[in-house]
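This protein record is not my work; I was only asked to verify it. The record follows directly below this note.
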Amino acid sequence: MKAKSDLLTARRQDPASPQQPRTGTGQRRATTRMPAHERRAQIQAKAFEFFSEYGLTAQTRALADACGVSQRLLYSAFPNKGALINAVYDAEIAGPFKAIWFVQLRDRKLPLTQRLQRFYAEYYDTILTRRWLRLFLYASLAEAEMAPTYIADIIRNLLDVIVEEAAFDAGLSAPEHPEMRRELGWVLHGNISHLAIRRHIYRDGTTLAVEKVIAMHVTAFLAGIPGMIATVTHDATP
């Protein structure tokens, strides 16, 4: 297996690389002029591809090459790599999460099993893609703030909603302590997230339909909620 630095070097040297458009004489083509906002969006999209494949530690020269622009043009769109990473987070990590999902999860006119299965089927297809997961994991390994920010801004609220709805459905009260409540939510959310990691990152060849696996996890979670709530509320100390 090639080291990451070798892959980046090969990427720069490979004339056929789609990130390295060249003329027949071996020279890089001139960058097409476009409005600044379009150029920024293009760089951001290419950076998402690049970061998800090679991580966040590459030099800006390699990043500019991958984006098909000069370093000067890269810095004209984003003042530094941190600003570019933040833009990628806003557009590609947090951006795809739909606020309407919170509303749908709280819609008690529908059975909770149906609500959870529908949400996680959509979350799996929309959020837990190969590229999203790779970037999220790379950012975590680099100790960047991407994962903690996503969890603080989105996932904690999601876990609260899921556990509150599950407790209500079981005729119980959700644990008052937020850490206890969220640990219960991670039982389901963690299983679905790991399902995506197994399929997209570990390349698990299991052919069982994702929807069936999600339904299995939802059923197990709801069946276990009474016992789990009893366990965490027996001792109020986290």
Q: What stands out?
A: The chain has eleven helices and no strands. The longest helix spans residues 210-234. The mean pLDDT is 86.
